[in-house]
Amino acid sequence: MKKAISLIAAIVLCFSANAQNPFEDEQVIVTPDTLHLFFFACTPHGGNVTIANYTSEDLVINRCYAENFYVECRYDGENIAETGMIVPIGEVIELNTYASPSTKDVYGTLYIDTDYGIYTVTLYYETALGVDENITSFSLAPNPADDAITIKGEDMGTVSIFNMMGQKMEDHFAVEKELIIPTAHYPNGIYFAKTARGEAKRFMVAH
């Protein structure tokens, strides 16, 4: 039975800027567009979170993190979830946000930690038709991984590794019932292992 997971983000905290004088109220606007996360096989697609700096100084984003979800927040292709970034005075940016559930909970929270405070967005996902990555005939360990993952299963064929953005990283052919895939060269983040039969599992790399 195939499933996909869709992720819908609702605004928890949103401020309105003064149209005449945007710096008057020293405001930061956090307005996520509706975020969707769909799993087609093991390819996730994210949505955008808009951050507007209507203050009289540069805005420092320290990091972005989530409760019950793994997240990546990308600006110009770079994941700033842990490194953070600066939003200059009067600038409006969009963060391409990719998320996948880390638990079976339906709700979660995205936290945007800035020097003006922590802004939150409520995350909600629901089940629809697609791929269920939990019902698979193979196992994957350890998770999180450091140097390597071991995949065990029958008739796996070519096992493909995808990153969080759905880009294929590598192909590995499983001759036996056990396949060891090195992960030491992978950046920290979320990845997916997909067999030739279309079954997929999510795993995390943390060095």
Explain how this protein is built.
The chain folds into 2 domains: 125 residues, Sandwich (Immunoglobulin-like); 68 residues, Immunoglobulin-like (Sandwich). The chain contains no helices and 19 strands. A 5-stranded antiparallel beta sheet has the order 1-12-11-6-9, with no helix packed on it. The protein starts with a strand and ends with a strand.
Helical content band: under 10%
% residues in beta strands: over 45%
User: Number of domains in the coordinates?
Assistant: 2
Structural class: mainly beta
Strand elements, count: 19
- Read across the widest sheet, the strand sequence of neighbours is 1-12-11-6-9
Distance between the termini: 34 Å
Alpha-carbon Rg, integer: 19 Å
CATH class of the largest domain: Mainly Beta
SSE series: EEEEEEEEEEEEEEEEEEE
Fold-level CATH name of the largest domain = Immunoglobulin-like
Q: What is the tally of helical segments?
A: 0
Low-confidence stretches: 1-22, 126-132
Shape: elongated
Mean pLDDT: 78
Note the main sheet: 5 strands, antiparallel
| CATH architecture call of the largest domain | Sandwich
Key features of this structure:
Immunoglobulin-like, mainly beta, 5-stranded antiparallel β-sheet, 19 strands, single chain, 0% helix, 2 domains, 207 residues
In short:
The chain has no helices and 19 strands.
Describe how the helices and strands are arranged.
Elements: E1 4-11, E2 27-32, E3 39-40, E4 43-44, E5 47-54, E6 59-67, E7 69-75, E8 78-79, E9 85-87, E10 92-101, E11 107-114, E12 117-128, E13 138-141, E14 148-153, E15 157-163, E16 168-174, E17 178-182, E18 189-194, E19 200-205
Antiparallel strand pairs: 1-12, 2-5, 3-4, 5-10, 6-9, 6-11, 7-8, 7-10, 11-12, 13-14, 14-17, 15-16, 15-18, 18-19
